[in-house]
Amino acid sequence: MANFTINGVQQNLDIEPDMPLLWVIRDELGMTGTKFGCGIASCGACTVHVNGRAVRSCVTPVRSVEGQNITTIEGLASVAAGANPSAPDLAAVQQAWIDHQVPQCGYCQSGMIMAVSSFLATNPNPSDADIDSSITNVCRCGSYPRVRKAIRSLATA
Amino acid sequence: MTISRRRFLLSTALVGGGVLIGYSATRPSKHRRANAELAKEGEHYVTTFLKIEPNNEITVYVPHSEMGQGVHTSLPMMAADELDADWELVNIEQAPAIDLFANGELIKGFAGEFGVPGFLTGLINVSAVSIAELMNLQTTGGSSSVRFTGEMAMRTAGAAARQMLVECAAAQWSVAIDECSTQLSHVQHNASGRSLSYGELAAAAALLEPPKNPVLKDRSQFNIMGKAISRVDIPAKVDGSAHYGIDAHSEDMLYAAIRLAPVFGTRLVSVDAGDVLSRRGVKRIVELEDSVAVVADSYWRAKEALKLLKSEFESSDADTTSSADLFAGFDRSLADDDSDEDVEMGDTESAFDSAADVIEANYKVPYLAHAAMEPMNCTVHIHDGIAEVWTSTQDALGIKGRVASIAGVSEDDAIFHHSYLGGGFGRRLPFNWNVIDHATLIAKEFDVPVKTVLSREDDMQQDYYRPAVASNFKAAFDAAGTVQAWHNRFTGPIQTPGAAHIPYTIANQSIGVVDGDTHVPIAAWRSVDHSQQTFFTESFVDEVAHRSGKNPFQFRIELLAEHPRHRKVLEVAAEAAGYGQNLPQGHALGIAVQESFGSIVAEVAEVSLDADSKPVIHKVTCAIDCGWAVNPDIVEAQIESGIIYGLTAALYGEITIENGRVAQNNFPDYEMVRMATSPEIDVHIVESGEALGGLGEPSTPPIAAAVANGLYILTGQRVRELPIKNHDFSRSTPVAQV
User: Fold this and answer.
1) What CATH number is associated with residue A50?
2) At which of B203, B237, B271 does a domain end?
3) ipTM score assigned to the predicted complex
4) Higher pLDDT, B107 or B528
5) Which tens digits make up the pLDDT trace of B210-259?
6) Which residue of chain B has the CA closest to A19?
7) In sequence order, what are the residues at sequence separation of 6 or more whose Cβ sits closer than 8 angstroms to the Cβ of residue B681?
8) Which residues of chain A does B455 touch, with a Cβ-Cβ cutoff of 8 Å?
9) A82 exposed, middle or buried (CB, 10 Å; 0-12, 13-18, 19+)?
10) How far is B698 from chain A, CA to nearest CA, in Å?
């Protein structure tokens, strides 16, 4: 049995412990916001948070998240809002993505947003070099210049 | 096989700045059918592409796929502006995959440009596809949506609808039509102050025949077009709710992992399933002519089981073929020069005979995969005599027909479910159907939905590739050092006529194509032939400029006397990039220009070498003349996108063939530009006011040559083969700038 919490909901699933978290989320739970891109943790399309930290779910066996708190793109805003009833519908990163018209095809953007929100939580005022070394997700549409602008707009300094 | 231009471009300028389009994009018969077959209670389709509801909400049906190019925003902007609609009340829906919404405007547009578009005919014989069949597609490609469907259908539909609504209002008020005006989804009679909403008029308007000659606005009258309106698809793309083909999901769904013949065109001989069928969740092994699939109750279970299954495919002549063999074949083709003429101008032979100096160069590019972020996939559910399909595609109608024919149902019994595309880039165009065909064949074995997904490795190894191409150039100079002749032979096939042509005034030109066929399947790849041909021609023009002792920018300007739009974008890009100004130590600028898909794009790349002598691309300055901009922010986004897609190919892109099959597996060996390697991009839109040009592709072609031309100045090394990662720049001698 696999036990974990995802977007605040406790799950108790009869699945193989080796099943990657990506396929648990997509095929077992039917939550499709988290994307399959490469299967080898190279592109980052499958990025989710485990206890607030970005991980690439396609190579994360479900046994390794036993008892942990998982957040996907669908839960990002409510986790950011916490118990605050007047919090906006979108997390700040999501709103910045709209403000800067970042996504094109959008397929990689769930993972990109999850990677960036975790990154900014630990490094709220990153340099360009920090961004370059930490945000390594692939976007075939080339949204990188807008990703950079959106991250800069979120920087606190 | 040509269509008379007059059928679709009979335009007359009107006094007062309007224009009459003498073609009915609104198809009266279809508009009747739409009301008969599709409209629900109280709804009325005023034209094929527009629906106006009693509550005054307007729905624009977009007959193109949204793959990030913004077409679900830009096309409705065009219809809504001509309609004088209130943008806040406009809804956007993907047009259903039924022939009522076929986007034949695209085909007509291409027919006017250069016959049946090569990217649509793919590798099949052109004569086997009638225009009528092509007209019945819902294709998205060729950077065509806005300039053809938008200009010829959306704007005309909006304008026609507006006229019909005004006609109804005038009749109700018993006033003259020209006493009425429209704004924000209302018709007004200014003299009496009366006003009716479009919703109130829609029922009566739907009974009218659409005007055959609706009057389009002058650009000065635009209220919506020309503005950087936010894309309608973006909110769903930041919260995980955007739905892609791969997201089709149901409780009873099964999943297929498939192994396709690794050497293209070979058949499955045998399968040793071992105990695969006893694994958890595995339902069945499906053997097909050229592949074997494992079907299970989760994709991961299917994929893990497939890894354990042994299979044998027949041997083939191609089994020992490598990229080196294919390029050796290209060299033989070029040496034989059994070429088909593309351009013959002046007397090239005499010019070479009497030349004071000749230079020659050989260029090459490898095969490229599309590598869309969403791996290829298709879900099919065949039940009760019906075939339902969910897939991300650039051609919904074509897919519906394809699935119907394989499933053995009539096209009327096939249902296509739309979704966003996780990238297209040409991979999801008609005829690139391997995943669709296999998914349908597998689903025929079940009565529940079956989702077939290619792994990234399969996606990369079972693509329809940008062709590998070799190109040979010679240039002849007179005693004064002036270029007199241009001789170019390249391996085909030609998918995009004109891509190898040069805009420069050189009196004697001979351009021809030789055989380049191999066993590797090819197709359109973002910008099609322009991506490789522009690398070739704009690099060799640079060689000619340097040999002439001229500055590469000035040399181009001098030879573009007959192409003022090319000159203009070069000048704008060069000035914005600081061309000729002082650059940081160790930096250089390379320049290139190309016209493709109706737009002219100049790019200047600022490059340097890092401590390990690897190229660094700091900044790309781009000027585009796309006529004018329907939505300037979408234009900029497409330019950025096309440059980065082309830069990935230029720096890293290489699919090689070993033992007849593709050697690359996944992103680590087919590397991508990422944040750290993505340059700053500065876009300048030059509004010439000419006809709208395409946007999805035209910024891709110049980037490889712009970067390579900059690296030449920086290092003295001429990059004649892509990708650039294979070159060693550690021993460099900068070229003195002229």
Assistant:
1) 3.10.20.30
2) B237
3) 0.98
4) B528
5) 776 788 999 999 999 999 999 999 999 999 999 999 999 999 999 999 99
6) B300
7) A145, B619, B620, B621, B622, B639, B640, B643, B644
8) 39
9) exposed
10) 14
